[in-house]
Amino acid sequence: MKAKHFIKKIELGKMKLFELKTQTKNQGSMDQVIEKINTVHSNKESLLSIPNKGLASIPDKVFDLTHITNLNLRNNDIKEIPKKISKLKNLKVIYLDGNKISKIDSSFFNLKEIEVLDVSANQIEYLPYEIGQLQKLKRLHFSANKLTEVPNTIGRLINLEHLYGHGNSIKKLPNEIGQLERLTQMNFFNNQLQQLDIDLSKLKHLQYVELGFNQLKTISETIGQMKNLTSLSLFDNQLTELPIALSNAKKLKKLNVSFNKLKKIELDLTKMLDLSELHIFNNKGSKIGSLDIKCLCKRTPIYSSHYCLLIDETQKEIVDHFKAEIENSKIGIVNMKEGRMPKGHYKQIPMELSNKYGLIDPRMEKFKQLRKQKTD
Questions:
Q1: Which of 59, 83, 283, 307 could disulfide-link to 332, CB 3.0 to 4.6 Å?
Q2: Contact between 95 and 71 (Cβ < 8 Å)
Q3: Is the CB of residue 179 less than 8 Å from the CB of residue 199?
Q4: Does residue 296 share a domain with residue 364?
């Protein structure tokens, strides 16, 4: 009994020591935070950066810094944005990503000077319609939250250039996104989108579009009117055909339509003069229509180590007729039966895709073997 009592006392002592160390660490972090706030206040610095400090809330002293333009509070444990934040009228850039925020109060959108807003990796369930008041906003990131929709007032953000909303549960994008004429990058990867029926004809500056890991069945024909589109990812969707007008995207360099249900690959390379990287693997039973594979394989991909065309072993039509291009590393074959990427692959297939379907990367496999040999 005495031994048990003694052991229990030791365990309690360890717990108290751990709690004391935690309190000391937290107090040390808070002391650093207060010191930083005081320095920014006394020196009239424009940036307050206090990330990774374990903050459960925004310290009240922050709201006295009405002169700051940049605020970095990323990777803390902040649960809410108090109304007092509206006192920071000069804010242009605010990072709140990696916290535990569940909602954004409408008063936040009185900060009319904001140009960059990042609330990614939180627990936000909806974006208030007042977001349309941020007329100067250029970059908006709300990825990895719990959103199911995007308010149509987003169309009022006339200066928006970057729009990132991947990793949510959004089922439909509002038509008003088509009004964002200055948009250059759009990412709604890994959502639940079923169709893209937006009029995209006004998005003349849009270069990068990421819509992989959705449930898309149709794509608007107006996609061909995006004259500066260079990269389009539509992998792992439910597409049975590509819009005919896609061939009008003359500056498109990279197109990924792997893991779909395409019946025929129809692309006019006489119009798509810049297309140099095409992923069409795992479209079971698909046929090659008006795609000039020899022409494609004469082009130089964005990265010299990349293949011009990625197919799988079931696409016999290509495997049998383009052996020279396969041998010259212009065409790479993904072995879906064995779950292996082609040997020459280097960061060409998205990691999320290879992880989901368990595709083995021969390069990484070789690297692990070499590392193992060194440690043995």
A1: 307
A2: yes
A3: no
A4: yes
Cα angle 210, 215, 218; round to 5: 80
- Measured CA distances, 138 to 92, 102, 160, 246 (Å): 10, 23, 4, 27
H-type helices in 44-73, by residue range?
Answer: none
Reduce the DSSP state of residue 282 to 3 states and report it: coil
3-class DSSP state of 2: helix
What the block records as the tokens of 89 is: 């009228």
Residue for token pair 């070499």: 370
Asked if residue 41 is part of any domain, the answer here is no
Q: Which residue(s) pair with 139 in the sheet?
A: 116, 162
Q: What integer best gives the mean pLDDT of the chain?
A: 90
The pLDDT > 90 percentage for the chain reads 79
Q: What mean pLDDT do residues 37-53 have?
A: 96
List % helix, strand, coil for the chain (3-state, nearest 5). 30, 15, 55
Q: Indicate whether 231 and 138 sit together in one domain.
A: no
For the chain, the domain total comes to: 2
Same domain, 241 and 374: yes
- For residues 58 and 101, what is the distance between their CA atoms, to the nearest angstrom? 12
Residue 231 maps to which CATH number?
Answer: 3.80.10
Closest to 218 measured CA to CA, from 202, 201, 234: 234
Q: Report pLDDT digits (tens) over 241-277.
A: 999 999 999 999 999 999 999 999 999 999 999 999 9
Q: What is the DSSP string of 84-152?
A: GGGG-TT--EEE--SS------GGGGG-TT--EEE--SS------GGGGG-TT--EEE--SS--S---G
Q: Which residues contact 301 (CB under 8 A, 6 or more apart)?
A: 276, 277, 307, 308
Same domain, 242 and 352: yes
Closest to 210 measured CA to CA, from 177, 174, 185: 185
In a domain? residue 17: no
Give me the domain span that covers residue 372. Answer: 193-376
How does pLDDT run across 161-184, given as a tens digit for each residue?
999 999 999 999 999 999 999 999
Contact yes or no for 249/274 (Cβ under 8 A): no
Q: Is the same domain home to 209 and 160?
A: no
Nearest to residue 356, comparing CAs of 212, 146, 221, 255? 212
Q: Are 305 and 330 in contact (CB under 8 A)?
A: no
Q: Which amino acid is at 194?
A: Q
